[in-house]
Amino acid sequence: MVEQENIKIIEIGAVPSAQDFTMQIEPKNVPAVFRECIYDWKAFSTWNPSTGGLDHLQELAGSSTVEVMLSKSAPVFYGDIRNHERDFSLQGKEGHAPCSSTEKVLPTSVETEQDDLLVGDASRQIYLAQVPIMNIEKEERVQLRSLIEEIQTPLFLETKTLTSINLWMNGAQTRSSTHYDPHHNLLCVVSGSKQVDLWPPSSSPFLYPMPLYGEASNHSGVPIDEHDPSLHPRAEHRRKYSQRVTLNAGDALFIPEGWFHQVDSESLTIAVNFWWQSEIMSGMLEHMDSYYLRRILKRLTDKEMNQMLRKTSPCTSNKSSYEQPDDHIKVSGGNNSSDGNLLHDLEPSALISLHELVSLVHDRVNAADLNTPVNSASDVVTSEPKEIVISELYNLEEDPVADILWALEPLNLQKMFLAMVHHFPRTLEALVLHLVSPVGAEVLTRKFDEMDQLNTEDDRNEFYRAFYGVFDDQFAVMDALLNGKELFSCKAFKNVMDKFLGVKVE
User: Fold this and answer.
1) Is the residue at 237 inside a domain?
2) CB 401 within 8 Å of CB 435
3) How far is the C-alpha of 404 from the C-alpha of 357, rounded, in Å?
4) pTM for the full model?
5) What Å distances lie between residue 263 and 1, 128, 260, 267, CA to CA?
6) Is the pLDDT of residue 344 over 90?
7) Is residue 292, in this structure, part of any structural domain at all?
8) Cα angle vertex 183, ends 181, 189, to 5°?
9) What whole-number distance in Å separates Cα of residue 165 and Cα of residue 38?
10) Is residue 336 part of a domain?
């Protein structure tokens, strides 16, 4: 995931125009910080707790009923409602006289407990989280409509169709669990401060997203403070890809859809956020969903396959060393000795690889089925076959055969195979039929593709005629390689489902 290292949070010096935000900031899908962005809000002064702002809020709210989070895991508020939190209705005091303490934000029914609740009693802390000020989809659930007159939608959002505006307020220090939102988000701090850790969507594998079909599908399954390496082994790398932002009163943070974030709020912090749908999502036509799903899964699967191969192909880094005309191989069919001893034509790296492959074949396959090795391979010592399930090897570090093939440049590998065709045909047959695992099939077919790009059409045809001529049933060999390649792709697909969707496929 090297590309993540270049995704840096943007600091905006001046508040942009609506056009600049829409054309230059929003499309990048990278968080942006706007300092001192909401100083002109009426709420910035009237909601300030140090100047009686809580009394003012109480008066504005009147008898409104609001839902709050009640956490038994305070100060952390998790997204899994079933296990960690529940909603708790609060009824404002109609006609209550203003006062200077925080207690009047709470209802009579919990008045005797309010001090403990607000200062962070570990067993009963509450959090006014995502209390609607405006919501176009659920107008009937808007609880604090009266507050909208004292906030102002930032000018750079004036062309957006906002889906909701929400109030966030905590009396004691709170921590949200790590999660993402399905909308673009502008988080504005009215009072207090918040510390926000952010991860790009591509960091999902390190955050173990909850299963897509669950009620908390947009939350990470990794506990905030500590994690069990046996349950979440990839989580130890998550901090490598996180970025931290501190928001003070007056600041705002643009959090693009899909970005995981975890928020720490200091005692008595008040914030307002705006949600709106991205142009990408609003422009997606429903009848295209299945196609987009397949395309995205295919792209993620291809990336996972490259990750499983651990590194880019060696041939891409130094093509000039084997693209010269002298490196092209003219192939003659059959095993005519007049073609010369092809073993002598191998470069040292290819000759060493040939020795290793012949040794592996003798170790794992019945030696009676192989030709007696000649010259360079005559000193191979056989040993008892190792108990390795070839069909279950998917990573290079697990499969010495695939690792050897992967390390060879394509034309050197081609020369080595031609040498085996002429001198060790039965060893080559046993190698391909019995020792090529799923990752080996992927490596071998990629190498063939690279050879094809470097050879002329005549050279390609001659090579494949010689290579497949070793086998009694050429089509069966092709099927075996393609089946192995599909097994490798299937494993990558399963990894994608686990890493990005939280779904384990059996």
Assistant:
1) yes
2) yes
3) 8
4) 0.77
5) 24, 14, 10, 13
6) no
7) no
8) 75
9) 15
10) yes
